[in-house]
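Page header: ASSEMBLY MODEL / two components / 916 residues total.
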Amino acid sequence: MRVACGSSMKLRHLPQLAGAWLSIARCFAQSAARNSTSTSIFAPDSTPADAVFGLSIFVLVVTGVIFAIVFGLLLYAAIKFRRRANDDRREPLQIYGSDQLELAWTVIPVLIVIVLFMTSARVIHSVQDARRPPQSMEVTVIGHQFWWEYRYPQYGFVTANELHVPVSNPAHPMPTFLELRSADTDHSFWLPRLAGKTDLIPNHPNSTWIDPHETGLYLGQCAQYCGTQHAKMLLRAYVDSPADFDRWVRAQQQAPGDDTPLSPEAAEGRRVFNNTACINCHAIAGTAADGRFGPDLTHLMSRETIASGISLNTGETLRRWVQNPAAIKPGALMPAMNLTDKELDEVTAYLLTLH
Amino acid sequence: MASDSVPISGAIGLPKEAGSTWSETLHEWVITVDHKKLGLMYIGSALLFLVIGGIEAAIMRIQLAVPHAHFVSPEVFNRMFTMHGTTMIFFVAMTVLFGFGIYLVPLMIGTRDMAFPRLNAWGFWMSFFGGLLLYFSFIGGDGLYGAGSAPDVGWWAYAPLTSTAFSKGHSTDYWTIALLVAGFGTVATGVNLVTTIITMRCPGMTPGKMPLLAWMYLVMAGMLLFTITPLTAAQLMLMVDRYLGGHFFDTQAGGSAVIWMHFFWIFGHPEVYVLIIPAFAFISEIVPVFSRKPIFGYPIMVAATVAIGFVSMSVWAHHMFTVGMASYSNAFFVLTTMVVGIPTGIKIFNWLGTMWGGKIRYAVPMMFALGFLFQFLGAGLTGIMLGAAPFDWQLSGSYFVVAHFHYVIVGGILFSVFGAFYYWYPKMTGRMLNETLGKWHFWLFLIGFHLTFDTMHIPGILGMPRRIYTYEPGRGWELWNLIVSIGAIFQTVAILCFVVNLIWSYFRGRPAGNDPWDAWTLEWAVPSPPPAYNFAVIPEVRSRRPLWDAKHPEDPDWKYE
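Prediction written out in full:
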């Protein structure tokens, strides 16, 4: 009961109190989260994730206090009112109820609900209805079975599976707004340290935003069951310094073209690539390959991983992947093209030139 | 005094038909319209499916015990979680709760059968055949000439994964038709329970004198009529999409995936209350009897149940906080979700009030009931966390949610069902369940439950999504998943104790007599097991606790109610 009275009085002082809790909680969270493979929701590094984190701590404290009190009462009653060994076998006093008590344990939860609703509504508004500053970045995220396509309409290129965004200095925010679409089934975009998840639903464009405060790699994965390989639809977001980001953008904007000079083996690989069904699904800017069903390969070798983050992007893994994707990721939609060993070597040599 | 308030106990001595063969016995059970036999059949089929669903869970936990395991293929894992969820909700939880309801309601309201005995049998057989159809998918799922496969679209089967473009073969059709068939049975049973409770109460049992169990089953059955229908409608639309070229959910032709979510969850969330309200009903019978006090705040308990019935119909979109609803829609569903917590909280306080000042006897039913109270408190509070939409943006679709609803379903509903088994098994069979085995069952299950489902919250917080057949090492999930899997071993052994107890006690259990718990409601006035006609003479009651009145003629309840 004391919880509720306390909470309702705290309503006015909520921001300060929440702030105090936050700084304590953040100490714990951040010491735990310094390794970059963490995907903990309690290690936020971006405004939306931070707002959610603040609310989370508040809700945890409120529910924690309720839990402690009711748990204590239940435990007390369960022990104190047990039938003793020396019981006189008479029935205890028969009590049918108490209007005062009923009123008390109705009104107090009502007050708690009002507080929780108002604090939640405030965070919902602050995240969902955030104003988009004019200098913000835009990226279109398209979910596919079982990989991610990223389009940068401001810069005119397409990439896959590894999102790059500029770091956002809290003094001069540079948020990235993500338009979320799906090419097939439902997916969900979830980088726990940057923002809560938002679903990618076909025929139902969504959006979310992030403004990462630190450079580095942020991990996540698809959070809405989307089919056989839902588990291996991993998310990687690279937060770059402004200079690194500009360099990356410039590199992505260059297109190799069909007449780029290649080693004989790679040139033969390009021929195999162009004459096999590869080009129906994959695009390589400046060449005949313009498929959009699979990941854009224009700058394949600028990516650290393949197959939506499941293994490192090396010549060896690429060759194994092209040979038989199902051996690495059963259920992936890319078929094995039944290439000969020689063709595999050639195609791999070609792919390795796509920097 | 007693003559007008005490039901007649004892059976009319009909000669037992000796020497019936097993085929005659089987025939008798197949054609029966007796609510007690049908109730037992519901319970029996639920136990069968519980074991199957449990095996599916065990397979998943073996696969997830360590990262990058290869115990099962992704395809098999996806079938396992789809079948586990569908089985446990529709063919275990619903079924066992119907079983107890159909068995107990006529006895507790002092009548001889359900309002529509044949409809009752029809409802059971429809539900049961629905379950069989679902499992036939293992043979027929991919079309009869294929190897066969079970549904793998998840138990809520989001569009457009269920469209023919993404779900080829017939596995999704088996899922659809199984739920459709079972749903017809469910609606029939809902109609039957509502009618029975409204029209068949014994003389003197005004609505205010019904046992709380009857009230709660009335609300639950009423809700069924409103919650199963959208599911049925959605299943029909899905069939139209798959076979008649419809585009309701076909996003490639302008259909809407989100509309399926609304249809499913406007069924799905009230469904949670359909399941938990009977659990409340068991607790509301067990806690008073073992605390030796009447239920605290009976009218408030009734009002809270009815309130839950209504409010729970307006909370469904809290399953959809991440689908991109407008901020004010999200805020609305935060409010309704939080509001439904109020009557639920009131119930916990009233059970506490019932225990307060009592003389609590810790027989096995009360141990499970107490487990329910603590665990349901926890489940409710993680529900509040999930109800705060921004927190849900992080938690939804993660293992935190899985932990939360297993806390509700296992820690809440299953614990209360186990309590109900230990409490009413003597009435149903005439023999007590073994107390020692029961305590082993309780403690092992309690330990296993907490190892598994307390721990399971943590990987969710650390960013582990649900429904993944394997996971990456190095994210801090390994240890927690291993502990979760170890907990499953304890639960398996506990269930084994339970099943052994059910079988052993049926033959060797201590004879129960009419009223082993010194209880107060009408079912304890008749022999155990009750005769086919229940009551030789229809009883007449004057209070909520007719047997209290009979046992304490100097201090009857009707003087105070």
